[in-house]
């Protein structure tokens, strides 16, 4: 029995009484043992307190901490693990790790290895599907070998944000070198290209009948423009001139795009309602001739999730519209490339305001892209489209406009078959960065980079 004893002074204390019946010299007797439980109770209290204290420490960790025994059964499950999986620590305890947190089941191999070799195992940048999003994680496994009980602690740290920042830094470094190079090259090509186009035009004119000067010179040479025209037609000269002209114009367009890496600041910065700019660009995309040739933008379902309280943004209207147009064109292309005819192309555009930053998301349900492509899409001239149909400049220019000209940032989330989501973040008062690409190029040359 557990009973409460009372001291002379009236204070109470816990007592345990054990009674046993035993034979003593041929008689049955009862033997009672009375024990003061104060020490034991105190030790129990201390143990409970210590357990609570340790649990609080483990729970206050920002990482997921999961203890497993060598059979892969969960022995420890902290608050962060509860938060991430939605499974409470009582429910998880004793279950197999693979049943409660299937994304980590592959870690069990490493647990055995860690226990066997008594060495910490580490996996870095592991993509883990948490709910609907993929989070980048570092997984570390610490072997636990105490009193013959073998197991391990698995620690999972969410490093998505760090990876994002790393990628952004690499991206802007790349843009500085490649973007600068593209701009420099465009400057060099622009003049000779202008010469070619101008002279081809004159050449075409000088082969035509009906112009006084042409007729005059032809006569001086003992022939007529009629003859020359006939000759040019039979030898296909005029269509050749047209072809040179078309090819030249295409090159000029590319150069013009490349030059936008270096041209800056001449546009007007004004306060604009982004929802209006977006709507106007959607209309523009609907009537864009280039786009219409390949796919009808108006067939696409457009879901607008605009934040009604979005403040106006200080930006350059035509540039920002150019960014949206590039995104819409890419999305339209990605959605048309989906083979599944049951999937209705759908473009979702969201705006919201958080921490003084305006955030715009453009999400499509197109073909999406793999990791390799995703890492390269902002590079100038990177394209997966067939030769002649994409220059690969659309996104790099958009990136330049958003980051360099408006002090924002731009990133993408995508996986194959799951569409793509572009996220643009703009400060409401655009910070025009100092110096343009030209000066950056010159300064890198000066530094011998
Ligand atoms: N919404 C998207 N879904 C899937 N892939 C995309 C999407 N947007 C861009 N991409 C990929 O990124 C690449 C680069 O895009 P970018 O706009 O820079 O060039 P492009 O579209 O190929 O050519 P251009 O824009 O000059 O016509 C594309 O070729 C495509 O592979
Ligand atoms: Mg494009």
Describe the protein in words.
- There is one protein chain.
- The chain is an alpha+beta fold.
- It has 4 domains: 2-36, no CATH class; 59-158, PAS domain (Beta-Lactamase, 2-Layer Sandwich), CATH 3.30.450.20; 162-265; 266-431, Histidine kinase-like ATPase, C-terminal domain (Heat Shock Protein 90).
- The protein contains 15 helices and 15 strands.
- The chain has helices spanning 38-59, 79-85, 89-92, 97-100, 107-117, 160-206, 212-220, 225-234, 237-259, 274-287, 289-294, 317-336, 371-376, 394-405, 437-446; strands at residues 2-6, 12-24, 27-36, 64-69, 74-77, 121-130, 133-146, 149-158, 269-272, 301-305, 313-316, 346-354, 357-364, 409-414, 420-427.
- The strands form 4 sheets. Strands 5-4-8-7-6 form a 5-stranded antiparallel sheet, sandwiched between helices.
- Bound molecules: adenosine-5'-triphosphate and magnesium ion (MG).
- Magnesium ion binds at residues 326, 329-330, 390, 394.
CATH superfamily heading of the largest domain: Histidine kinase-like ATPase, C-terminal domain
Number of domains: 4
Structural class of the helices, strands and pairings? alpha+beta
C-alpha-based Rg, rounded:
37 Å
Fill in the CATH topology of the largest domain.
Heat Shock Protein 90
User: Average pLDDT across residues?
Assistant: 86
Report the end-to-end length measured between terminal Cα atoms. Answer: 85 Å
Instruction: Provide the list of bound ligands, each named once.
Output: adenosine-5'-triphosphate, magnesium ion
- CATH class of the largest domain, anyone? Alpha Beta
> Can you count the helices?
15
How large is the share of residues in beta strands?
25-35%
- The parts where pLDDT drops under 50 for at least 5 residues are 432-449
Question: What is the spatial order of strands in the main beta sheet?
Answer: 5-4-8-7-6
Shape estimate: elongated
CATH architecture of the largest domain: 2-Layer Sandwich
> N-to-C SSE series?
EEEHEEHHHHEEEHHHHEHHEEHEEHHEEH
**Helical residues, percent:** 40-55%
